[in-house]
Each structure stands twice: as C-alpha cells, then as structure tokens.
Amino acid sequence: MKNILFVCIENSNRSQMAQAFANIYGKDKVVAHSSGSRPSGKINPKAIAAMQELGYDLSTHSSKSLDEIPQVEYEYAITMGCGDECPLVNAKHREDWQLPDPRGMEPEEFNKVRDEIRDRVLQLLERIN
C-alpha cells in the first residue's frame, strides 16, 4: 500500500474530496490522507453535499493540519493550487494541480471542480499502479 497526501490551505474542500476519491477508487492500492497548512477545523457543507450526491459521506472526515498526518514517506504529495509547498512532507513525488477554490461557487460550478478532482485522482492512481 502506498501513501498519498492531498494538501490545501484549509483542508475543507479540494483536499478532502481528493482524499475521498483516492479512498474510493484506490482502496486496495493506496492509503490516502489530507491536511492543510491552516486548517479551518471543519469540512465545507458544500463539499459534503457534493460528495453526498455521489454516495460518499464526507461528514465523517475532519479538517487537520500537517502536524496531524502520519509521519511516513508519501508516494505523492499533491497540492491543490493554493500556494502550499509542504516542505516538511517526506514525499517521493510532488505535484500541484492548480485547481480553483470552489468554496464560494454555486453547486453546479462546485461540482465541476469536484469532477475534475475525481478525474485527476483516477489518473494519479493509474500512474501509481
């Protein structure tokens, strides 16, 4: 099992959804984590609603800091385009996905970002295998 990490500033939207998709589609191959450089302490209700539409309960997740994630070597550390570099994270590979912050978006636009995250996670999982 390979560890992957998704990082965003608040750990309340993009990184949480990426973690969920990695756990859904890579459950036998990866262990996914998410964190934030300045976590909000809560998951955005819009993210919970967007994932609920796909049958995933994101309300079971929690917003956490980089200090709260397992201190392991990650296969990939993925930032979401929020300027976080995560210099203290031990990772073989690093990527920045440059995704827009969906926080203030209407549901239709929010879901486009969600779907882009899903597609990128699926591509990442293909590369890992």
Structure report:
With 129 residues, this protein is an alpha/beta fold. It has a single domain (2-128), classed as 3-Layer(aba) Sandwich (Rossmann fold), CATH 3.40.50. Helices cover 33% and strands 20% of the residues. It has 3 helices and 4 strands; from the N terminus they run βαβαββα. It has helices at 14-25, 45-52, 107-128, and strands at residues 2-8, 30-36, 74-79, 91-96. It has a 4-stranded parallel sheet, covered by helices on one side. Helix 1 (14-25) links the parallel strand 1 and strand 2. Helix 1 crosses helix 3 (107-128) and helix 2 (45-52) crosses helix 3 (107-128). The longest helix has 22 residues, at 107-128. The mean pLDDT is 92. Residues 2-127 form the Phosphotyrosine protein phosphatase I domain. One of its GO terms (molecular function) is arsenate reductase (thioredoxin) activity. This is Arsenate reductase ArsC. Keywords: Arsenical resistance, Oxidoreductase. Its EC number is 1.20.4.4.
How do the helices and strands line up, and which of them pair or pack?
Layout: E1 2-8, H1 14-25, E2 30-36, H2 45-52, E3 74-79, E4 91-96, H3 107-128
Helix pairs in contact: 1-3, 2-3
Write a concise keyword list for the protein shown above.
129 residues; alpha/beta; Rossmann fold; four-stranded parallel β-sheet; 3 helices; 4 strands; 33% helix; EC 1.20.4.4; oxidoreductase; Ptyr_pPase_sf; arsenical resistance; Arsenate reductase ArsC
